[in-house]
Amino acid sequence: MAFRYPQDKDGNPSLPGIRHINLRNIREVIGKISIILMGANAQVSEYLSIKRDVESEFRREW
Known about the structure:
Largest sheet: none
Distance between the termini: 52 Å
Shape: elongated
Order of helices and strands: H
Strand content: under 5%
Number of strands: 0
Structural class: mainly alpha
Radius of gyration: 22 Å
């Protein structure tokens, strides 16, 4: 919840002691995560394509 709210439910700082955020580091981390997510997207897209093909073939047989 710290990324969303400056305080927790009790009113305490959610990230005590942190005064600066390294935006370059965030950019690098998000870049790495995006590669993983693009790969997952490609895998799901391929799976759905194969599923549609199989379903289409199955319908033709009946």
